[in-house]
Amino acid sequence: MTFKDVIRKNFLGNVKQYLSFFLCSTFSIVIFFNYTTLIFNKQLIEGENQDMFRYVMPVTVVGILLFSIFFLIYASTSFVKGRNKELGVYMSLGMTRKQIKTLVNTQNAIINGTSLVAGLLIGAILSRMFQLTILKILEMKDVTFYLDYKSFLSTAITFLFISFFIYVKTTRRMNRMDITMYLKEDRTVETRPYQKWDGILGVIGGVLLVAQIFVLFVLTSNEELRKNMGFLAGYAILLFFAIYLTIAKGGRTMLEKCRTTSYYTKNMLAVSTIQKKYDQNKRILFVLSILSTLTIIFVASPISLLNLSEEIALMEPNTIEYVETTKENKVDPATLKEILNKQPVKEQREVSFVYLSTTNQEQHLEASIPIISEKDYNTKTGNKLSLKQGECFNMGVDWIPGNNGMDAGSKITLYGEEKDYSLHVCSAAHEDTFVSKSFPSPSVLIVNELDYQKMYEENKATMSGVYHLISYEDWKKTKPIIDELSNYVTTKSLPINATILQYETLKKSYSTFLFVSIVLAILFFVSGGAVLYLRQMGELGKTKEMYQKLTGIGITTKERKQVTRKELQLIYFLPVIFGAFAGGCIIYYLTNLFGGSNILSQFMKTTCKVILVYFISQMVFYLITKRKYDRELHSFMK
Asked: Tell me, what DSSP letter sits at residue 389?
C-alpha cells in the first residue's frame, strides 16, 4: 500500500468526523459571502439607508469573521487532537513526522478547499434571494441585484488566511509531539489538586456576580453615571470577570464541597467524572457563556424595538413638526392652513427661536443651536424654570447619550451675526418636551427672557425662525398631508419631522437590524452547539475505555446513562444560565442608557421570552447530542 493509499483510506475512514467540520466551514463561508455582497453593492451604500450598510454591515461581517476563526480553529484542533492515538500507531509502524504532517495537512487542505468552493457556489446561488429579502424589508424598489467579483475575492482571501493559520497551528503542534505523547495524550487529564485559594476566589466570584444586580440599579438610577459609556464598558468587564471566577473557581469549590455531603455518596460516579473533566471544560463554559449573552442581546434587542416601533414613534411630541427660518421653508399662511386642515387638527402651535453658531467659522445650520426663551418654555411645558441673566438650561431633545459637551457648570460661547454671547450652563438634562428633531441639533438652549429678547432683536433678520408644531387626532392618516407639505418644505437640513415618518423609518431599520442580528445569533448558537458536540464526540474514545473498565466492576447501562446525562446537562445549560443573567443585565443597562426607561418593562418581557426560546433550542441540541452519545456508547458496550 502506497502513501497515497494511506491518505485516501484514512480520509475515507474519518469522513464522518470531517463532515461536521466541512458543513460548519461551508456554512460560515456562505454567510460571510452573502454579507459581503451587500457591502459591495454601490446602490445600497449610496442609498437612503447608507448608514446601515456603511457601518452596521461591516461590523456584522467582522463579527461573523471573528467567530468563524474561533470555531474553525477549535474544530480543526479538536479533530486532530482526537486522532492522536491513531497518528501514534502510524508512527510506531515507521511513518515519519514529516509524513504524518503531510497526511494531516493534505486532508485538511482537501476539506478547506472543497468547503471554500462549495461555500462560494452556494453563496452565489443564495445571494439573490438574500439581497431581495433585505431590499423587501427596507422597501427599496429602485435597487437591483448586484454580484461583485470583490465578494468572491474577499471571501476567498479571508478563508484562505484562516486555513493558513490552521495549517501553522497544526504543524507547530505536531512538531512538539513524539510517539509517546501521541499514544498517551488521550489518557492524560488537564487537572490540578483543589487549593484553598480556589474556595476564596470562588466565593469572591459569587459575591461579585450577585453584586452586579445592585451595581446595575445604582448606575441606571443616576443620570450622570448612566450616560457615561465608560461605566457600561466597566460594568460589562466586571460582569464577565465575575462569571469567569464563578465558573472557574466557584465550580471547583462546589464540586469539592459536594464530596463531603450525602449527595456524593448517591452520585459518586457522576460527581467524580465531572470533577475530573472540569478543568478542561471551564474555558469552554466561559466562552459559551459569552456566546449565550451575545445571542440573547442580538435577538431580544431588535425584537423589542420592532414590537415597540409604534410606541417609540408616539414619543414624538407632535404629529407633524417643521422649522421655518428667515431664509428657508417659507410657506404662505393660507396655503399652510389649507394643507393642514385636510384632517381634524387637535392642536397647532408656533414657537419662535433664534439660532446661534457654536463655532466662529462660517455659519451653517449644522453648527448652530436653537435658543428659546424661558417664558415660552414654561408656557409650553407647564414647568417653572427660572434662569438668571447669563444662564442657560441645555435641554436634550435626541436619544444621544450625554449632553453634547455642555454639562452643568460648563461655559459656552455662541456667535451671532455681529456679536458673541457667553453663557453658563446651570443644568442639563434629556426630557420629553415640545420640540423634537426638525432642527439639526441634539439640544435646545433655554435662556433668561431678557437675554433671549436681546439675542432675538440682534439676530432676527438672518438667524431666527419658528417651530411649527401640529398635533392630529389620528396620526396614521397624516401621510398625504406630509406629502403635500413636502412640496414647500424642501430644505434637506430642516426636514419635516412626523410621527408617521418616524414609525416607517423605525419599522425599516428595526426589521433590518432584526434580520442581521438573527443571522448572527444563529451563527453563535450553531457554533456553540457544534463546539459542545465536537468536544463530546472527540472524547468518546476515552469515555468508552472508562466505561469498559467500569462495566467489569458492575456498572449498569442505567447508571451509565445517568452519569452522561448529568455531565451533558452541566456543559449545555450552565452557559445558558450565565448568558441569560448577563444578557438581561446588559439589556437593562442599554435601555436606560438610551433613554428608554418608559419602555423598560416591554424590553425585559421580550428578553425573558427570548431566553425561554433559547433554553428550549438548547434543550433540543442537548437531546440530539445525548441520543447520539448514548447510541455510540451502547454500541461499544455490546
From this structure: T
Which three three-digit cell numbers place residue 538? 472527540
- Can you list the pairs that 499-506 forms with residues at least 24 positions away whose Cβ atoms lie under 8 Å? 499/313, 499/314, 499/316, 499/318, 499/319, 499/320, 499/475, 500/313, 500/319, 500/475, 500/476, 502/312, 502/313, 502/316, 503/309, 503/310, 503/313, 506/305, 506/309, 506/312, 506/313
**Quick one: which of 635, 386, 353, 548 has its CA closest to 467?**
353
Angle between helices 97-138 and 3-13 (to 10 degrees): 40
Q: Which residue has the cell 414647500?
A: 488
Q: Encode 293-319 in three state secondary structure.
A: HHHHHHHHHHHHHHHCHHHHHCCCCCC
Q: 35 with 154: CB under 8 angstroms?
A: no
Q: Using CA of residue 359, residue 363, residue 364, residue 370, what is the dihedral sign?
A: positive
Q: Which residue has the cell 444662564?
A: 391
DSSP state of 323: E
pTM of the model: 0.67
User: What pLDDT is stored for residue 445 in this prediction?
Assistant: 93
pLDDT tens string 519-533:
777 777 776 776 676
Render pLDDT for 307-364 as a digit per residue (tens, 0 to 9). 888 887 887 788 999 999 988 898 888 999 999 998 999 988 889 999 998 886 655 6
